[in-house]
Design brief:
The chain has 19 helices and five strands. The chain has about 400 residues and is mainly α.
């Protein structure tokens, strides 16, 4: 009997044995006593290009080989099977998906990306395996996001949306819309992120996809907060809390309550605006914009009524505020009232119980008061909107909520 005939019988025996294990639904660990022989049979299949038998053997071995200690053998056998061209499109896509997942677990992101690209090419060429193709696109998006390639990450998700456009894949489409919102958030494209949140919410509501409804409302709240719109953020969190309580999801209830606690604290932390009457128009615009964002603002024109004791009201306003915004201009730096408010705030900074943060705001070129020269200011001299965003980044920061 020739070596080839001996090997052929060897392969046939272990193919039958492997089929028995699979047909009997035996635990993969039951295979361990015969593992080396089955593995040798699989390698002989590769040597002699007996692809049908190799498929049977790998299908029997794969569950056993998904142990991290045997991933390299899994990759070896399944790569050979894929290179043979023997598998159907469905089998090829499924095997490539498994290989990509293992490479991801091993941290080989570039290798995983190669497999996902092959899946996409096969799936799009044959118009088959839609769910696996969508999974590949989402995984490639995740890999690109991790590498900082946000535009590429977005492109993969948009391709996924195109696939689901005419399909009955509402859950998958909702997930893609949500993930697009997440990537645009990382891209600091808040308007686009909010638009994808809006679309995801509409679809999630239509199909009663409650976990994604809550996730999206939370993300929407986070986006509003990052964009310094505290009222809108609070409203989104409250809607998420209502849904989480209705579904009795304790973890989501706890998470939304914590966000609401923090944002409530941030919104209540008062902002006192110190200015000279010559800068009244600017101070009014600033106070109006800060209040529109949901911040508690103390501005003299709103707080001091006819007959009120001015010094007492100003003192009370300072005591109730967590921030002192000082409008610096040629008029204000020479104003004794502004100087007094700065001195009072600096004295409060020395008291732990009555802490206040001084935030200088440069409206026009002037000599900065000595007491404020080592504090960075928000620059409103050239661009009001940029100065406002700089100021809001401090006033709405999450660190003030603890």
């Amino acid at each position: 009997m020739t070596r080839h005939e001996i090997i052929k019988r060897y392969i046939e025996y272990y193919v039958r044995l492997a089929r028995e294990y699979r047909n009997l639904s035996l635990n993969a660990l039951e295979l361990k006593d015969d593992f080396e022989n089955v593995l040798n049979a699989a390698r002989y299949c590769i040597e002699f290009e007996v692809w049908a038998s190799l498929r049977d053997l790998t299908q029997s071995l794969n569950q056993y080989l998904l142990n991290p200690a045997k991933w390299d053998i899994f990759i070896e056998l399944n790569q050979s099977l894929l290179q043979s061209g023997f598998l159907s499109t469905d089998e090829t896509v499924g095997t490539a998906s498994e290989l990509a997942s293992i490479e991801l677990k091993k941290g080989n992101h570039d290798a995983a990306d190669v497999w996902y690209e092959r899946i996409l090419l096969l799936g799009e060429a044959h118009g088959e395996c839609t769910n696996i193709v969508l999974k590949a696109l989402r995984r490639r998006s995740g890999i690109s996001k991790m590498k900082g390639e946000l535009d590429l990450s977005i492109a993969y998700l948009v391709r996924g949306l195109q696939i689901t456009r005419d399909s009955d894949l509402s859950v998958e489409r909702t997930d893609l819309l949500f993930e697009l919102a997440v990537v645009h958030k990382e891209h600091n494209s808040f308007d686009l992120a909010l638009e994808y949140c809006r679309r995801a919410l509409i679809l999630a509501e239509a199909i009663s996809y409650y976990p994604r409804i809550i996730d999206t409302l939370m993300l929407q709240g986070d986006l509003h907060w990052l964009d310094h719109r505290l009222r809108e953020a609070r409203d989104s969190y409250e809607a998420a809390l209502s849904r989480a309580m209705a579904k009795k999801n304790n973890s989501d209830v706890a998470a939304t309550r914590e966000r609401l606690r923090k944002i409530a604290h941030t919104m209540k932390r008062g902002t006192f605006i110190s200015y000279n009457h010559n800068d009244r128009a600017f101070a009014e615009r600033l106070a109006t914009d800060l209040r529109a964002r949901g911040l508690a603002v103390w501005w003299a024109e709103w707080e001091i009524k006819v007959g009120d004791p001015i010094i007492q009201k100003v003192s009370e306003g300072m005591l109730e505020s967590g921030f002192l915004v000082v409008v610096l201009s040629p008029a204000s730096v020479s104003s004794p009232f502004v100087q007094r408010e700065i001195s009072s705030a600096l004295m409060r900074q020395l008291s732990v119980e009555r802490h206040i943060t001084i935030l200088p705001l440069l409206l026009a070129d002037c000599e900065i008061p000595v007491l404020l020269r080592d504090i960075r200011w928000a620059d409103f001299r050239q661009d009001y909107d940029l100065g406002l965003r700089d100021l809001l980044s401090v006033l709405t920061a999450d660190r003030w909520s603890d």
